[in-house]
């Protein structure tokens, strides 16, 4: 942190003000510096206040303070305009950032750090940032002669902008340009690795890690964490663990971020013992594990449905004085919902009540999980009650939770109430999504199958152009009554309509075909086997529900003659499809969707 030493100035007040400026606390900075701003104040005092406005992303306040600076007859310097440019960048106002950048360039040649600030303002428009990099010669700015940190700041902003826009190819090109012009650094390398990590591009992340090593860039914990995160996002925990072991082998000091990534990866796989083993190893290495690391253990317990252990870990956090926030408390609620205890819903409610009793405000995910739990059992009244409590505590409506209430009415067989809650979407200023449409259609199919196609056409006419609907789940819902009735011809007709609409069939649709074969009179075992084999040969995935339908279609006699165990993916333990009764996500604040199917609805993480 910079310290100020000037004759005639209370340096202690200035240094404290600078600390508050770094935190963006404008009010505290002004209170400390106001007594010093009279009688020929120096520009750097006004610049400290501008720094506070910049870190608070308050462009209007910064511009008003600049006008006061001029009225006080204090001459601005290049740093003054740099702070104003930073204010515009933080506020994501590229035009204002460019204006203040030009004001700085009128006085003195700007630095590459200031150019990096301008590129930060262009993160929403990477092409605009690229144009500024190409114009650097016109600005008397020679990036290759700048310091490594300055060059990295400029090119890093460009790589980050392209990565944020999802254009990883352009991000690579910006990185290569930095290499050619001598602006490459470990920080820039880490930005590119992070971009591939967030895109779950594991092969690319590993490839670029090796490329950085060949460029003699020094890897650090951040570099390894980015690659680990890429594998963690794809649920490849063994690979993430190998990268952690490589980090340790290379003598890099263990820190909390990579530990949290690895623990979170194993937590998603419900590997409680693995998480505990790694936590023990990290604590032995004297890593100060934060609340998120301990939350990973609770999440692992939640994924495994071990509510008692999740409660015990939460209690240990409270006893250790770590003050758990809403995330671990929500994980405990999830653990109860995933358990097989007959009173799981009541216990989840108690966990939620304890959270609120401890003064911790539940978030939309907390309420959404609980509402989804009641919805899965068709308890409409309880789902509506908790939705009302969510609106009272959070105020803003939540589409996922609203869809869950529609689902509760659907599971209860109350199509009228489902329709009522669907109509309330507009009153809550929520836009219906594919889940909303599928849930209402499912309610109608359950209550009056003969009206399904009429309802489908009505919803199709009300769908928005920017919404991807209908989906494969939509057709699975329409196919279900025909499948249960053994009407293979109608199921095939809907299949052909789905394909003609450009929708790729999924396992839920294959389930309908095989179920129609099973329920047909007489049964159609040969047709079921042929359709299943065609599906597998074309690369289609399957799950235990598909295999169950296939076994039902074959019948006892045919089953003994057919070696289904040799068919690809025919094991009962095959990966579940989206419509299967899987769990309710992990404890982190991530988006969730309720996905409909012939087996009901479930909450899945995306």
From TrEMBL:
What keywords does the record list, in alphabetical order?
A: Repeat
A Pfam family cross-referenced in the UniProt record is PPR_3
Query: What is the species listed in this Swiss-Prot or TrEMBL entry?
Result: Symbiodinium necroappetens
User: Its domain of life?
Assistant: Eukaryota
**Organism lineage string:** Eukaryota, Sar, Alveolata, Dinophyceae, Suessiales
Q: Where are this protein's PPR repeats?
A: 42-76, 290-324, 471-505
Q: Which residues form a coiled coil?
A: none
Query: What PANTHER family does its record include?
Result: OS03G0856100 PROTEIN (PTHR47447), OS12G0638900 PROTEIN (PTHR47447:SF17)
Is Cell membrane one of the keywords?
A: no
Residues of the signal peptide: none
Which InterPro entries does the entry mention? PPR_rpt, TPR-like_helical_dom_sf
Identify this protein by name: Pentatricopeptide repeat-containing protein, mitochondrial
